């Protein structure tokens, strides 16, 4: 199979992808040294009901990339509109991400957002290469839902359920 990606304009590809609304998550973990790490991901999906698996994609260039590859566990927090600014901070390199937001900690010390639309506590099942990203497959060990509605990412901005796009 030949690679035809050199014929595809990256701006056109990015624009096409932005036409697909996706949920927004903040994915967190605790490094072996106890340091908290996290990133914002809109590439998140359920993978399997039996066993309960989810996937989330992490940029290989992310500062936290090696920590998540080494982590045994991670938490997926489904973002609500009240977390939009926090999600922006978690998408920014060099930010002290945990200085903002109100996090709680599970028994292993992994940070989670108590007011998230949903929280999924996962064990890293597998990390699969995927171009400039890695696909983290997590076995869900605990899941809970909150009261808030999830926020979406669409055409470069946060959107709320029920809102009409301009």
UniProtKB/TrEMBL annotation:
Domain of life: Bacteria
InterPro entries: Flavin_Rdtase-like_dom, NADH-dep_flavin_reductase, Split_barrel_FMN-bd
Enzymatic class: oxidoreductase
UniProt-listed Pfam families: Flavin_Reduct
Example GO molecular function: oxidoreductase activity
Isomerase found in the keyword field: no
Keyword annotations from UniProtKB, A to Z: Oxidoreductase
Occurrences of domain Flavin reductase like (ranges): 17-160
Organism expressing this protein natively: Amycolatopsis silviterrae
Record's protein name: Flavin reductase family protein
EC number(s) on file: 1.5.1.-
